[in-house]
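G., before I forget:
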Amino acid sequence: MSDDHKVNGSNSKKEQLDKFTTDDQGKKLTTNQGLKVSEDEFSLKAGERGPTLMEDFHFREKMTHFDHERIPERIVHARGFAAHGEFQVYESMNKYTKAGFLQDPSKKTPVFVRFSTVAGSRGSGELARDARGFSTKFYTEEGNYDLVGNNIPVFFIQDAIKFPDLVHALKPEPHNEIPQAASAHDTFWDFIANNQESAHMVMWAMSDRAIPRSFRMMEGFGVHTFRFVNEEGKAHFVKFHWKPLLGTHSVVWDEAQKINGKDPDFHRRDLWEAIENGDYPEYELGVQILSEEDEFNFDFDILDPTKLWPEEEVPVKLIGKMTLNRNVDNVFAETEQVAFHPGHVVPGIDFSNDPLLQGRLFSYTDTQLIRLGGPNFHELPINRPVCPFHNNQRDGYGRQTINKGPVSYHKNSLAANTPELATEKKGGYTHYQEKTEGHKVRARSESFKDHFSQATLFWNSMSKAEKEHITEAFSFELGKVKSEFVQQQVVDMFGNVSKELATTVAEAIGANPPQGEESNDTKTSPALSQENTKKKPSTRKVAVIIDNDFHGAEVSQVLDALKIEGVQPEIVSGKLGVISGSDGKELKVDHTFLTADSVLFDAVYAVSAGQGNSAFYKQAAYFTKEAFTHFKPIGATHHGEKLLTDNNMESSPGVISGGEVKSYTDRFIQAISAHRYWEREVI
Ligand code: HDE
């Protein structure tokens, strides 16, 4: 099998994967040796009631394969889901970088993107309070470029040597393996209190960002400062961003916990269904670019991964768009076996001296050696570049390439010293020649020592509702901590971020208020608040609560109008089957109150209240009230209005009823776009 095939726009990766993809439909069952099998239900026995024979090669092969089907899960980011897509740059970035995939706006580069939670194991619930991984593999003509980011722009620690400590503290405690996929426990918060550089990221982790509504509605960040290098060899510092076209939205904590029970696959299902429906998730790639001369012009060190570059100071330039348009064929072969690495770069992209990034450059290959069982994981279909690759590496577990000839070393004469090196002009990667000198020291740079200013900047930039959520998140997490000493240490630590925050939390958990002065940082960065994000009704799910005898013409008009805006109404009723309107209009029921739950929807449209059917009424009222409690838009017409009036919801913000159909529908769609009505919380 050769990889020396034409690189062909967005299809080059698909074409390559197709060569490895097989469809067993309609085929004869065989062993792995290709032998046709005549019986697959009974093992070979000595007599009908006798023992199974060692000779049964079919049984042995089937069982042995099964026995070896599991591989180690990722040490972090074990729970993930991925999709294929393509990336296109808006205009040539040649002023800043010579990276080939960032030059030609007509060129589509295939990508594979894996989203993940960090702490939980492979089967854990997806709505954990956690950072989300956002890893992108660009299959460029110059080799694979991996942007291995998170949905939070900063990190807990400043030096990679602390990563094992952080992860040990975050993961379930080793003596009883509790709690799963949660930071609300003693060891995590003990680590935080003893490693105060984590303050900024903890603020993000306690915010709504850590419970996204969808992978399609969260930002991505490269976190570290990288370098762009152009043809002339001139470098700029760069930070990478992904901006979702649907805006950045979250669920509420009570809802997140319930979703984990009702549908632990909520995020992967959402991504999978959106792609199957043709609602392709889109993200713009943004870059913040800084000239090398400006390196020291900030009140933070640009190499410090606990700091972001406020967008108001260094604007994000949107340089291209990524569209995810194809689901995987097989989760294990693709999503599980994909191997990302921040060190997979292409000419024109280089590193900075961020000590966290430097350590990551070691860790990713190292972990893949154990996870994927040896040094040939780059040959797995999902990991192969779409351009040819040639070198003198040979052998190792699972080697697939058959390299010809006796020569597997450099320098050689017998093969005319090939594979040959490429000069920089011919695309050979050269490292940016940054001048560095210094004494060998194990120390933190003085310029990395301010741990609280940007944590305060984040707090100051939040809306009233967002601050409320952060306060509740701290109170929840610390409320689960058993050690009063740890609780108090954390309260004191966050007193440095905001006195108001730490005092309210202290009160909630029975700790002493923090000592010391209020921070006098008043700077804000509006870009940090999700209140200022894009708001669209598109792909929002609405539960239509409805029973027989509905007003057919009116309901059809509302449902049609919702669909035109890309809203997805789903019919929820007392039982499955078909319901009929007063005028004979029929609707197929998608869910019953048993199989659906308000936490799985963005909004409710109540048409019926059961009309005398008390079981229906009770369930419809529970459903609607719960959606209301989670600040969701609620619309009601006809009998459905009874659900609002009975429960004092009718005059609250985001609750829509009354008026003629067109005006009702317009107001309801507007309400859906708003996402949530936090005013209900703060009034
Ligand atoms: Fe990772 N990280 N990480 N990380 N990371 C891994 O690699 C590591 C960090 C991130 O979807 C591991 O293949 C160290 C920051 C994502 O397959 C491992 C340090 C950011 C993923 C590893 C960090 C990330 C990983 C585990 C501190 C955001 C999932 C499995 C120096 C910029 C990739 C694997 C996927 C996965 C090490 C910190 C993002 C162990 C040592 C900062 C999205 O190699």
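Residues 355-371 form the longest helix (17 residues). Residues 266 and 446 are 44 Å apart (CA to CA).

More on Monday.
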